Amino acid sequence: MDNKYLKIYNELAKKIERGEISPKSQLPSENQLSKEYDLSRGTIRKALDLLSQNGYIQKVHGKGSIALDVNKFDFPVSGVVSFKELSKKMGTKAKTIVSELKLIKPDKHLKSKLNISGDEKLWKIVRVREISEQKIILDKDFLKQEYVPSLSKEVCEDSIYEYIEDELELRISFAKKLISVEEPTLEDKEHLDLEGYNVVVVVKSYVYLDDATLFQYTESRHRPDKFRFVDFARRTHQ
């Protein structure tokens, strides 16, 4: 079995994962790798093709192979996960900064998002998520006061979902999500460490309780280089 290219693939993949080959840096050419490993260019090319398919490198015409940043955080598209739960899973240093917490009267836009017809008030919570000392997520949450009568800064810094489920004894069931790529707003630029990126990935979520009551609308705005949005799909056969 010709597994020589897999050995090269695994070695280069580990170097990229460990940062020994830094993101955006150029890998040695096929000729250089061929000489280094004493293997044919065809074998090296197979290893590079596999690295490209699995998101480790980008082949750029005239420049060769460029290493990509693989140290991204997996953000589940189909799950309903709190930032506290996500940061525990990532095992990385994370911090939540609450920049705004207040009760508001919803405008027409928010009324349409949350199917409100009367004078119901909403909690508006704006939080900046910091991971490894970089501000990379801006969360804007709107919750119906009818279901969440009170909120504190301490709860918002910790986990609103944990508070809702453990203290208020409500069961959060499912969410509908829309994902788009947008230009950063002035608010994004003010709160996030964008480092020159001219787009943000926006996840708009409509969150429901187990009785199918819509109680929350969220806009979660992410710096694009630090996240990959993952899902699991299974084909159903008719």
TrEMBL record:
- Regions that span the bilayer: none
The answer to whether UniProt assigns keyword Transcription regulation to this entry is yes
The protein's matches in Pfam families, at most eight in alphabetical order, are given as: GntR, UTRA
Concerning InterPro entries, the annotation shows:
Bact_HTH_transcr_reg, Chorismate_lyase_/UTRA_dom_sf, TreR, Tscrpt_reg_HTH_GntR, UTRA, WH-like_DNA-bd_sf, WH_DNA-bd_sf
UniProt entry tagged with the keyword Secreted = no
Give the species.
Orenia marismortui
Q: Where is the HTH gntR-type domain?
A: 2-70
What one GO molecular function would you report for this record? DNA binding
Sorted keywords for this record are: DNA-binding, Repressor, Transcription, Transcription regulation
Q: Which GO terms describe its biological process?
A: negative regulation of DNA-templated transcription
UniProt cross-references to SMART domains, sorted A to Z: HTH_GNTR, UTRA
Q: What is this protein called?
A: Trehalose operon repressor
Query: Taxonomically, which superkingdom?
Result: Bacteria
